[in-house]
Amino acid sequence: MVYIKGELDLAAAEQFQRAVEPLANDATKLLVIHLDELTYIDSTGIGMLVALLKTRKKQGARFAIENVPPKVQRLFDLTGVSYFFSEANDTTERIGGQS
Amino acid sequence: MVYIKGELDLAAAEQFQRAVEPLANDATKLLVIHLDELTYIDSTGIGMLVALLKTRKKQGARFAIENVPPKVQRLFDLTGVSYFFSEANDTTERIGGQS
Amino acid sequence: MKEHETVVQLSIPADAQFIDIARLTLYGLAAKMGFSYEEIEDMKVAVSEACNNAVLHAYNGRRGMIHLRFEMSADALAIVIKDEGKGFDYKQVAKQAAPLSAKPIEDVKIGGLGLFLMEALMDDVSVTTADGTEVRLTKFRHRGEGEHAHECISPSSVQEQA
Amino acid sequence: MKEHETVVQLSIPADAQFIDIARLTLYGLAAKMGFSYEEIEDMKVAVSEACNNAVLHAYNGRRGMIHLRFEMSADALAIVIKDEGKGFDYKQVAKQAAPLSAKPIEDVKIGGLGLFLMEALMDDVSVTTADGTEVRLTKFRHRGEGEHAHECISPSSVQEQA
Ligand SMILES: Nc1ncnc2c1ncn2[C@@H]1O[C@H](COP(=O)(O)OP(=O)(O)O)[C@@H](O)[C@H]1O
Ligand SMILES: Nc1ncnc2c1ncn2[C@@H]1O[C@H](COP(=O)(O)OP(=O)(O)O)[C@@H](O)[C@H]1O
């Protein structure tokens, strides 16, 4: 489980990649990203989450995004990524991931 | 009793004067200024409080400043107004003001 | 500068570290003008997208600045985000500004969402690429009356209790 | 501009309503540089005092701007607050910059605390009145090492829990 706190923007990109990469590459474990405390996201952050999803999918590894604040959800909806994230969450649940 | 919330700066000066003037001129009542929720003050705000104190003193009216946050107290000390304010508070207590 | 317009300007290095400073200033001004929380959040993202682009695409890794100009009028806040970088073919790029479509995730290309989000989140977007890039983002105030930008808020409040 | 110096600039109308925008920007930059809460509060007051003076004394009621320049270096944050107003005799005024003395309250003159507070709250204050007024306020970083301004904070944090 990964909790993202604060702003997931261009300034935070490197730190995020560094923190998440080792977890992303471990296909044996379920990866859940919690967004409760995310105060800001833009296309940079959304791009990073989509990239993460692609990595996980390619490995056939489980991935879910949870506790999305309303203003973040709104941007997910606008940009069309909600579709992919909810699909990933469904799959993860189907194969028995628990948060 | 008057509670000052937010910033007591140049931008707030007019609003402060308008709100406090009628109370300042009523010498029969004790005037207590509560600063718990004051987030910012500078020389403008300090000047307004000193002016208020002078008005009250001239009328022989009771006046006290209470619940001063540490960072505000620091500015009161630096500028030398603490002396006048604590004197006013003492006088007010001596003549039996209750907060 | 138009009549009845109040202007604030901010220049920051074209470096990701400083984009949050642009957001802070935007927040302060938009709150002063009485925009809602949602409107302010929308503007924050749009302005950041324009800044992100200046950081990522304008200067090819060389040092440069981003100049922001906040134009406050009775009926709108316009934010102009300008760099002195290499510019780009806006007409061409604008055609591709769209959300991700529902295709298999493997085929989804990341990126290209910035201009789309600006369009989606602001009331008006215009881009000039004559001398670097200048993005102009406008949000109208949905209040009807033509009152002055200044009159609506004071940062402080005095509460009396008898 | 010196080497290893990062500069942010902000221009606001010389109007009391906008001084909080200067404080917001100052806060964002000083926090990024790792200054303590107390140091930031001190700088907020000092910068506001300089802005207050530009609003009150520089333009004689005419419209004008205040230009702020934030110079971030490894060892200090300097804030230059400039107006294009009428200037004043700094040497003369500086002599009178002092806290209120313990005389009867009836004799206390209100005012004249601005320059005193700037001196008291900053590590260095210099004033030039050649073409309007330019106040330069400096706060040193008490950290010893000469590390870069950027390295110390990232606004975001990622927390893992296995
Ligand atoms: N300020 C700019 N300077 C140079 N090129 C830019 C600028 N802004 C946008 N562009 C170009 O427009 C393209 C699309 O931008 P955008 O929609 O924000 O998506 P993204 O930045 O993710 O590629 C960029 O890839 C870039 O080539
Ligand atoms: N930016 C300025 N432009 C013109 N005069 C100024 C400026 N700053 C300060 N002064 C002059 O210096 C005096 C002292 O300033 P200060 O110590 O801040 O106290 P105050 O502003 O309360 O008078 C002011 O009264 C004014 O005459």
From TrEMBL, chains C, D:
Q: What is the protein name stated in its UniProt record? A: Anti-sigma B factor RsbW
Query: Where does the Histidine kinase/HSP90-like ATPase domain lie?
Result: 13-139
UniProt keyword annotations, A-Z? Kinase, Serine/threonine-protein kinase, Transferase
Q: Which SUPFAM superfamilies match?
A: ATPase domain of HSP90 chaperone/DNA topoisomerase II/histidine kinase
Q: What is its EC number?
A: 2.7.11.1
- Name the species this protein comes from: Geobacillus thermodenitrificans
Which GO-annotated molecular functions does the record name? Answer: protein serine/threonine kinase activity
Q: Which NCBIfam families match?
A: PRK04069.1, rsbW_low_gc
